[in-house]
Structures are given as C-alpha cells and as structure tokens.
Amino acid sequence: MSKIADKKKGLGKIFIYSFLGIASLLSLFPFYWMFVMASRPSAAYNSIPPTLTPGRLIVDNFQKVLNQIDFFQAMWNTFIICTVVTLVVLLISSLAGFAFAKFKFPGKNILFLAILLTMVIPPQLGLIPQYYLIANAGLLDTLTGVSILFFLNPLGIFLMRQYVSDAIPDELIEAAKLDGCSNFRIYRSIVLPIILPAFATLGIIVFTAVWGEFLWQFTVLRDPAKYTIQVALASLSNTHNIDFGMILSGVFWATVPLIIIFLFFNRLFISSITEGSVK
Known about the structure:
Strand content: under 5%
Shape: flat
CATH topology of the domain at 69-238: MetI-like fold
Distance between the termini: 33 Å
Order of helices and strands: HHHHHHHHHHHHHH
Helix content: over 70%
C-alpha cells in the first residue's frame, strides 16, 4: 500500500510541477514575444506564421527610439513620480491601516467603508473634476500634478489594515502603552518592523501601477521634457507609418526596470504572501 501511495504522490507532484511549468511559460511568453518583435523589422509584426526567434535589430530599433523621443529623461521622470508616490502611499496607508486596525474612534467603520467604496468608482469618472482641481492649483504640466492624484490609495489602506490586524496582537500594543510609548513611537518601533513584508508587496503594486498609468499623465502633461515613459512611447505612434519594431523596442526597455525591482524585492513579496499559511 505504501508503494502505491508513494507512486500516487509522485504522479501528483509531476502533474503539479508540469502545470506550474506550463503556466510559467505562458506568463513569460508575451514578454519574450515583445523582445522578439523589438529585435525585428516592423514587417515581422504581421507575419504569418508569426516570428518566434529574435533578430539582430534590437540596437537599431532602440536607436530609432532615442532619435524620436528623450527616452532616458522620460524614464527619469517616471522613476521620480513612481518613487515619490510609492513612499507617500506606504506612509499614509500604513498609518491609516494602523489606526483602523488598532484604534477605536467615532465613525471608524463608516469611514473605512467609504474608503473601500472609492475602489469601485471608475477613475475615468473623476477625470474632469480632478483636472479642474489640478488646473486651479496651478499644477498642470508638472510632475507634482501627476503624482498628487495617487497619494491616497484605498487598496493600500485596506491591505495594511488587514495585515496589521493579523500580524500585531493587541496585547503588544497595550504593553507598549503601559511602558509609556506614544502612538507614533508604537508605530515607528513596533508596527514598522513587523509590516516590512507588506511594505514590499504594496510597494511593488503601487510602483508598477503608477509606472503603467497613462490616461492621467497624458491629460496633465504637455511639455515633452516632462513626459513620462508611457506618454513618450505613445508619441511614437503619431505617424501614418507605424514602426512596430521601434515601438516595441521602447516598450521592452521600459519594462526592464520593473523586472529588476520585482527581483530585488522578490523575497519580501513572497514572504508577505505566504505568511498567512506559515502561521
């Protein structure tokens, strides 16, 4: 019986690993295809059967991108916006999550519900009033005007509230208060070290979301020197003869920083996801 059970267990592992391997290949294929198209002439984009092997034009296509737009300035602008927004969101979300998880105050549940309800509102509905507010504040065509809209993140507040509720026992907070710690000292000395894995998860989510955002950036920015990478890449297609190899070359190199950031914070990201199962 033990041999049969071991055989079934081995077959189960083979099936799981095979499924995960196929799923991983399917997930990586779009990025690989983008790399292939970035190294091929524009005609390869519509070729039948599709081209699946890299070409030799990866440098030439990227040189075309550099001739059309200020690629590195756009990347720098995007990096500044994403970094500032991520840091501000982490600070606000962790403070708000700590307050919602461990403090009692009037209207707490109603306020938390109102924050969650904003997640179901399509961002396009707020585009006109948001543009009006930014214009009246004199922040049009500025990186500040692009960034400030993303400072309050309902998803971040929700994630932090759930993580703090599960990871930090009430007894630890009460013990710190008995020792004379202020609320901010508790947040700084106790809460922050414990929620670092959640910081990594939320940071990756926010950074990648802001990096890939286009509509608001396209609405606010007009000066090419202040373009983000998404707006700059969109300007490449403002011609009758679209060079897909050039465009996908720009998209490929604009994606590389996100992969590096994910790999850098990968361990903390996985730790945050698996912590509940470990407990």
